[in-house]
Amino acid sequence: MYYKSPLTYLIPFLFILFLFGNVNVNSEQQFVQLAESFLKGSLSFVKVAKISDTVFFANHYFWPLGPFPAVILLPFVVVFKSFLQGYIEFPLNILNFYLVYKIARKFKVEHQKSLFLAVFFIFGSIYAPLGAIPGSWYFSQVVACSLILLAIYEFLGTRRFLLIGICIALAVATRMTTIFSSVFFLYYLVKKPIDFTRIIKFTLPIAIIVLILGIYNQARFSNPLESGYNLQLIPKDAQIRRAAGLFSPKHIPGNLFYMLLKGPEPILSNDSHILVPPYISFDSYGLSIFFLSPILFLIFVANYKKELVKVSAFTVLIISIPVITYYGIGQKQVGYRYALDFLPFLTLIVIDTAKKINNKILYPTILFGVFFSMYFTYLYLGGKDL
Question: Between the CA atoms of 56, 58, 64 and 66, what dihedral angle is there, to the nearest 10 degrees?
């Protein structure tokens, strides 16, 4: 019976923790401010002074991140005098939980295990701090993730490629790196017999959005290829990395270290090596995806002879190339948040592999990730990161 399952109590509790963050974080609301600017006919901020990650160009401050999250907010900014990104992010968290659960069910995973897999994705992974803290950078990633999950769910169902293309296009208008997720769907589109109608339906929305973004960039920076990332106002350490190239192989070791290897750090009393509360924390460059989600180790025992697993892995590889060559690393973050760009496809591999894993091993592994993901998320909210 459902009332005997710990998930009956755990899932609502975790969503309450998310709700707390979503309704109480009122800083870093750049997309709300950008929506207000759009309503006043401006592509630059009309209220904001110099803030981190903005672009100062032609005596105006611009926001380099994709504009679609601001478009989502437009009707709410019109209706309500005061609106926060968290008011949209919290429903998206619920939607994403549902989508991961339904995707697992598409793999014929039984009900409770599917719920646990959804718990892993939302509360026990790099998604958790992004879903709980609706600052603009994180809000943008949650929006993009929702669109990718919708595209995957549609693909595993009725495969309406126009709808899938629209989802990917809107994700691209949120985070440009998500354009590489097209690889997953294009693989199936170019398999014989090739259906050119479906290919057009899929690619046309993406092409239109890329054109619109080019026009948007031209209007802001007089260059259709300049989104603003080359011009951002950033801290000194990030400036040094960017000087080596916006994208460069030089950034691969640092990105891989924080993505794959970085663990927590002890909180010590002076030089005594006596641990003091909160005992362990993390620096602002974040933690390894494997530490926050040990269930991801399942990818090393996955069956890569299966077509969908193989295509998912290839898509992860393609998406990871711009991620690990980018100078930013993702700071400031709890976990290596740029990996969320490919986490939905990595999760497909995990879901397929989890079907054969004993629940007595799988469930504690997921709960380990949930505990530390939420623990470090609330350390971050409390300003206890290093």
Answer: 150
**CA–CA distance, 254 with 262 (Å, rounded to integer):** 10
Rounded distance between C-alpha atoms, residue 226 and residue 220, angstroms: 9
C-alpha distances (whole Å) from 269 to each of 190, 211, 274, 275, 386 are 60, 56, 5, 6, 14
Half-sphere exposure of 210 (CA within 13 A, CB side): 13
Q: What is the pLDDT of residues 83-117, one digit of tens each?
A: 999 999 999 999 999 999 999 999 999 999 999 99
What length does the chain have?
386
DSSP 194: P
Tell whether pTM > 0.90. Answer: yes
- Note the Cα 33 to chain centre separation in Å: 21
Residues 341-381 have pLDDT tens digits of: 999 999 999 999 999 999 999 999 999 999 999 999 999 98
The DSSP output letter for 181 is: G
